[in-house]
Automatic annotation (TrEMBL):
Residues 2-100, 139-246 form the DNA/pantothenate metabolism flavoprotein C-terminal domain. This is Phosphopantothenate-cysteine ligase. Keywords: Ligase. One of its GO terms (biological process) is coenzyme A biosynthetic process. GO terms for molecular function: ligase activity.
């Protein structure tokens, strides 16, 4: 059996010294890798420098930084290898910085935009074109100056990495992850089922940040047919995922 696991969280570069990141530790990914590790299983483990990593040296580590880097790494691995299952637990940034502007730069562009439409009201298309103009401003500084009183970031949407997986390997068993914050079980379940359909996942591990801690981790492994199993620790969740994949691979 060959398994691909992603874990940790991406970091999106603002300049050479700043970035936008998240709080994903990678601990659940480590638990999953440990659950799957045995002599007959090959594990490719994609993670980041800052995340916790499996200690077993026989696990193949692939380090990435941002979403673009992750996409290229997964495309390479999925094109070169056949995977029985892909467990995509990495927290991937929804947005990445397109450019940054000082207060002066932003006001200059807005002033020019308003002059072009003097006496006329701006419609939504005009405003969107103005945003695109801001987005296309080049970033040349290795470190953004701190002299400006306000710094403005233009963020653009990242592609959904999970959708790449089934495009490249339609037959693999795909386990996706969905994390929400302080919601009811019904809402969490509904969002997870929608994610299964949208991303062609076989399973989604749905969890709520308010129920995730150092020792506790409440998670629901939801299948395509709507059934689910419950784990209360990272180790339990890892074993649930392993059992589900082993069963699905025999069908």
């Amino acid at each position: 059996m060959r398994i691909l696991i992603t874990a940790g969280g991406t970091s999106e570069k603002i300049d050479d010294v700043r970035s936008i990141t998240n709080h994903s530790s990678g601990r659940l990914g480590v638990a999953i890798a440990n659950a799957f590790y045995e002599k007959t299983t090959t594990i490719d483990y994609v993670t980041t420098n800052s995340a916790q990593k499996p200690s077993n040296t026989n696990i193949n580590l692939h380090l990435i930084s941002d979403t673009k880097n992750l996409s290229a790494t997964l495309e390479s691995l999925l094109s070169q290898n056949h995977y029985d299952a892909v467990i995509h637990s990495m927290a991937v940034s929804d947005f990445t910085p397109a450019t940054s502007l000082s207060e002066e730069q932003l006001l200059t562009v807005l002033n020019r935009l308003l002059k072009n439409y003097q006496g006329n009201s701006l419609n939504m298309t005009d405003l969107k074109n103005g945003i695109r103009e801001l987005e296309e401003l080049p970033v040349t500084e290795k470190k953004i100056s701190s002299e400006t009183d306000h710094l403005f970031l233009i963020l653009k949407k990242n592609p959904k990495i999970i959708q790449l997986i089934k495009q490249l390997q339609p037959e693999t068993i795909l386990v996706g992850f969905k994390l929400l914050v302080d919601v009811s079980f019904n809402e969490l379940y509904t969002v997870a089922m929608n994610s299964i359909k949208k991303n062609q996942a076989d399973f989604i591990l749905a969890n709520d940040l308010t129920k995730v801690g150092e020792k506790q981790h409440l998670g629901y492994l939801i299948a395509q047919d709507g059934s689910y199993t419950t784990g209360t620790t990272k180790q339990e969740i890892a074993e649930l995922i392993k059992a589900a994949i082993v069963t699905a691979s025999k069908q």
